[in-house]
Amino acid sequence: MRLAVDLTKCQGYGQCAFLAPGVFTMQGDEALVYDPDPDDGQRKRILRAAAACPVQAIELDQPRNLRRQAEGSTASVRPVAGKSADSGKVDEGLPTGRIVIVGASLAGLRAAENLRRNGFEGKLTLVGDEPYEPYDRVPLSKQVLSGWVRPDRTALPRQLGVDAEWRLGVAAAGLDVAGRRVQLADGSAIGFDRLLIATGMRARPWPNPAEAALDGVLTLRTSKDAARLRRRLAAMPERVLVIGAGFIGSEIASACCELGLPVTVAEAGPAPLRAALGESIGAIAGGMQRENGVDLRCGVWVLALEGDDAGRLRRAHLSDGTVLETEVAVAALGGISNSEWLVGSPLAYGPWGVACDAGCRALDADGNVVPGIFVAGDVACAAHPLFGNRFVRLEHWGDAVAQAETAAHNMVSRPDAQLPHLAMPMFWSTQFGCEIKSVGVPSLGAEVVIAQGSVEPRRFVAAYGCDGRIVGAVGFNQNKWLDFYERLIRQGAAFPPAFHQIDEAERHQPFAAAFPNPPVLPPIKEPPPWPSRPPGSRSWTTPAARIPTPSTQNSAAPR
């Protein structure tokens, strides 16, 4: 059977590890890891664990016979009300017709399931550049690298039958908006009435092509990448070099420590996780790495990778003057949006992804909604009503799922029934036995304060503020408190927090968060505002307060 745990919900209570210890394991105080494809003999234990989870974070695969029944119930395809996909007609409501989803990963699969759940009975096609069915990327840098889970056993659980045509192993190559057609790399084309772009990202390779081609120079993004890296780590190299100390680089270093492998992390910035946590809190994460034996070198660049005559990696030349003997180097340099296939289309796209409004509707370069085209997942750069309608790019599991739900709802709804994406951003990372979890958008904060707990035992909550309001919070092994901080962010609560609470930090003075320069965002002066509450809608709620951004200029001007 297949399962996934929504770790944005998980609060580390550990009932699942008690009820199904062969499937779920706690690392440290609150960090949960799990087997995404356990033996079916564990089913009863897993079902009890899922039922006992206080936050219902465990997602299970629907039995295949029930999936077939569900697929049969949505198999009827009736003509589109109006004209067909080939005619270019876009209907206001779309219970039938043809929907194409480009991107067959987490966001694509969840969108397909939600389309069927919302009553779409038409033809559904999913296009994916990888030849595999949708799989979970979360275990790749954790359970897979440690050897607990095979890289080909991370398929996502199916929650609902989707009765879809799957075009796997073929990438999208172009988009004809006027003709309502997606061009594929094999020369074929697919017509659509509605289109969802969920193409995600790919790993940024080492910039020197000759050095990137050396045997032993790797990246980590796909199941295939994880299989290669796992084989290298299983061979017990004398030293592993990780280039970049973001989340992926830090989790790779954690896996190396778990395996007893010497690992050096070269980070050009002053601290790990600087883009997500800021330099000040990132330095605490850096201390955690060094405590676990990582040779962490901040402010150090890799100048060159050197191979032998057989093309195998042998050493790395660093900017601190050292030459590091290594057989394995992993470039953890972030990601590149899979948006080049949109060249020639009117959509607003670039290094920052594909621009969309608060309802996941794609925008053109002038900020106008492109009818019938939607965006979700890592590739989406979306205007967020909770943050002053500012463009926000979130490459996180929970946001991909929430955006997929919003996009699916709006794709089959009349304009007056469409809803904005209001989910609060959250992310997590499990490394060195510590669960680091965030709520809100800490990178909007100018200052940060340790609001609860203590830094020394790596058990605290840091609150981030901008213009006197709380905009984000990060917990180290403090999962259970983040729901409280989510409410404060939604309410626009004052920063620094002035209340007294359990486990209040002794030092309560704000200090500079020290984030790097803001990321490049779409060159659209201001995204279109989301309309007021749709008539008859009970689920739309106006944000209680505008959450501030670093400055009015930055929230509107292109960057």
UniProtKB/TrEMBL annotation:
Residues 427-498 form the Reductase C-terminal domain. Residues 516-534 have a biased composition (Pro residues). The keyword Oxidoreductase applies. InterPro entries: FAD-oxidoreductase/Apoptosis, FAD/NAD-bd_sf, FAD/NAD-binding_dom, FAD/NAD-linked_Rdtase_dimer_sf, Reductase_C. Residues 549-559 have a biased composition (Polar residues). The keyword Ribonucleoprotein does not apply. This is Ferredoxin reductase. It comes from Arthrobacter mangrovi.
